Amino acid sequence: MEAVARLRHLKSSAQKVRLVADLIRGRSAADALQILRTTPKAVSKDLEILLRSAIANAEQKNPSVDVDELFVSRIFVDGGPMEKRIRPAPMGRAYRILKRRSHVTVMVAERPPVIEKPKSAGHMKNADKVKNNKLASGARARAAE
Questions:
Q1: Using CA atoms, how far apart are residues 101 and 8, in angstroms rounded to an integer?
Q2: Domain of 46: which CATH number?
Q3: Per-residue DSSP letters for 13-47?
């Protein structure tokens, strides 16, 4: 079960938002909220509100969902529309200023249960091979002397 929340036309560049989004990708929802609360970037407050909205959407979609098991399955930031402004420049010219915006999408999902595989004896075979190669290389070195 996956729930989605979108924030459109965030007044910040996608590059700045991605710095914070990378911090919470793959984390549990509680850890992600804690990280966003303590991150000193201005965008972290907007992302915290968005993550809370995604958690609420998950609860609304399935009331029996365990909020403690939710994690940020996907978060991505896309560029939005740009406001174009003009700044006067020397000799009658003009420089263009692009005020960038971005769209953020957060998906939260329940973490699947972890199933442990029984360890096979195959991992010991590789260790024996490495050991034998070291012994063989040592014998070759002595023979070369």
A1: 8
A2: 3.90.470.10
A3: -HHHHHHHHHHHTT-BHHHHHHHHHH--STHHHHH
Per the confidence metrics, is the pTM higher than 0.85?
no
For residue 77, is it within any domain? yes
* Residue 107 Cα to chain centre, angstroms: 11
Per DSSP, the residues of 91-143 read GG-EEEEEE--EEEEEEEEEPPPP-PPPPPTHHHHHHHHHHHHHHHHHHHHHH
Any domain includes 48: yes
In contact, 76 and 105? CB cutoff 8 Å: yes
For 63-120, the pLDDT digits (tens) are 889 889 999 999 999 999 999 999 999 999 999 999 999 999 999 999 877 787 776 6
> Around 35, how many Cα atoms within 13 Å sit in the side-chain half-sphere?
17
List all residues 6 or more positions away from 110 whose beta carbon is below 8 Å from its beta carbon: 1, 65, 66, 69, 70, 71
Q: Which domain does 14 fall in, by range?
A: 2-113
Q: H or E element: which one contains 51? A: helix 43-61
